[in-house]
Amino acid sequence: MAGFKLTKHSYSLRGAPVGAVADPMRWTSGRAAPVIAIDVPSGIDSTTGEAPGAHVRATTTMTLAQPKTGLVADAVGELWLADICIPRQVYRRVGASPPDCLFAPGYQVRLHAIKESDRQLSSLNHVRT
Questions:
Q1: Residue 112 sits in which domain range?
Q2: CA-to-CA separations, 92 to 13, 25, 36, 58, 72, in angstroms, rounded
Q3: N or C: which end of the chain has fewer CB within 10 A?
Q4: pLDDT tens per residue, range 62-99
């Protein structure tokens, strides 16, 4: 789906959001209210962290399955990781090996967002609930 575009007012996995898609991002970022992003804040490239145009600045981001390399601190706010029940075998097939305790019952995982100058994976803090 890379490069997928519907119209000149659509969203794409590449390039800046435009038209009617960019307007709500600008509106949201101009408010004082807390913003929660799911997976990656809109308008942010999940791999590079680049924001080529309008994008959401989240207060908190709940990223799904695994941390993304593009989750840079200035756009994601407080960063949490959510389990979406992807079987461990799937991770193994793609060469990923999350720690055994990552999604153990009774744990929430808070991540420390990476700085734009440091593109290494985020560190994990396990919080017992």
A1: 19-128
A2: 26, 36, 30, 31, 26
A3: N
A4: 988 888 888 876 889 999 888 888 888 888 898 887 77
